[in-house]
Amino acid sequence: MKKLVYISLCTFLFVMLSFIAHVIVEIPIIYLMITDFDKYSLGLSWGKLMLIHYIFTISLIILGIIFGIKIGKKWWQYILA
Question: What is the pLDDT of residues 36-73, one digit of tens each?
């Protein structure tokens, strides 16, 4: 039971870290697009940019879950040692 809780909390931590990484990447990009959309949008429409945003968000969440589980299992071995 403790192992399950530990791995779940570690996964939650990495999902939260993925959200922080998302914010760090996205805020400067949004600022640049607000200042001069034509220059920084790379010729993409808002719809295509939102699709990229959704794909990036889902990818980060999935990576956070995968790394959280892997790191949680690895660190659990260190706790038992």
Answer: 888 888 888 889 989 999 999 999 999 999 999 999 99
Q: What is the pTM of this model?
A: 0.81
Q: Which residues of 60-80 are buried (b: 16+ CB within 10 A; e: fewer)?
A: beeebeebbeeebeeebeeee
Secondary structure (DSSP) of the chain? -HHHHHHHHHHHHHHHHHHHHHHHHHHHHHHHHHH-HHHHSTT--HHHHHHHHHHHHHHHHHHHHHHHHHHHHHHHHHHH-
